[in-house]
Design goal:
Layout (H helix, E strand, L loop, with lengths): L16 H23 L5 H48 L2
Helix pairs in contact: 1-2
Length: 94
């Protein structure tokens, strides 16, 4: 029997942070522009920058929560895989 206890697997990244960063930046800019359009106003560069920065930070927080959720899901995948292998082997040995 081969001991695979030291074997590791590499899972591909499911989130490209470069693309996410670009999207978050675009979304934050769009939200500010939408605000200005709806209220027919132009924000000062200081207020605009603060709004974009705070919005970007809030969206990155959402990404962090998604990454933690992904870890939980991956853990559940491995647990389900172990459970299923055990069931198959047990059924086949009956």
């Amino acid at each position: 029997m081969t001991d695979h206890s030291d074997r590791t697997i590499t899972l591909k990244k499911s989130l490209d942070t470069n693309i996410l960063g670009e999207n978050i930046s675009d979304i934050a800019d769009f939200a500010v522009e939408k605000y200005e359009f709806r209220l027919d106003t132009t924000l000062s560069s200081e207020v605009r920058e603060a709004a974009v920065n705070k919005t970007s930070a809030a969206l990155w927080e959402m990404i962090e929560r998604l990454m933690l959720k992904r870890q939980d899901i991956l853990k559940a995948f491995f647990e389900k895989a172990d459970e299923t292998v055990n069931e198959v082997v047990s059924d086949m040995q009956k």
